[in-house]
Amino acid sequence: MIVAYSRAELAAGLKSLRAGSGRLGFVPTMGYLHEGHLSLLDVANQRSDAVAVSVFVNPFQFGPTEDLGSYPRDTDRDLALLEKRGADLVFLPEVSEMYASGDPRVMADPGPIGSRLCGAYRPGHFRGVLTVVAKLFGLIQPELAVFGRKDFQQLVLIKHMVRDLEFEVEIVGAPIVREKDGLAMSSRNAYLSAEERQEAPALHRGLAATVARFRTGERGAGALLETLREQFAGLPLLRLQYAEVVDRASLDDVDPVLPGSVLAIAAFCGGTRLIDNATME
Known about the structure:
Strand content: 15-25%
Number of domains: 2
Strand order of the largest sheet: 1-4-3-2-5-6
CATH class of the largest domain: Alpha Beta
Largest sheet: 6 strands, parallel
Order of helices and strands: EHEHEHEHHHEHEHHHEEE
């Protein structure tokens, strides 16, 4: 496995990979890897001849009061997991290497849908996400990139960016990977106390109950969202930030709810913000 810390090392590593391979897959991460990340690598390996992975905590997608300084990191463990799982190249830039000219003067604007859902509570977040993804696409030039569906709004925005700005890369959305009790895997789950960890699976239970009610024929958005909220009753450590049923491409609210719509939620469990979603089918 090639490990590159600089742009020069990345270019040399990619040249070596390109000499012996055809289709290059790419998985961008912020590190502190778990099975959800590694499942993205599996998908990329299935669809590509070689796979590059980036491990970079991007400061421009964190708000001033968010957890940039405390975001969990374990580079040695990440490298061991990636090598075992079949990554061919890992790019591990410092901020000064990724943003060699300092703060970017031009950033990728997510447009109106970037202010929906999570964007309404994290101003500037998706501008930072799209900017770093665009930079990584430019540096690595993959034919395919894999993103997890847990970050559903991010996936939708990246697909729009690739189409609207003519990036020649196929975007693949990979299924959410969950713990045995249904909690979506996330690096931030490490923040949860034992008590919070007991309550956090209510997010998934709420999604499952809502999908089940949809399958019985309920199509009213209000009634479906009430089913979701009922799962939070009696759980003092959980505070729902938003719950919306949206069109899977435009992220517009839908009512009545149609098959293929997405129920997206964010909640605080103690001080930890968690997100999840489910398709209404």
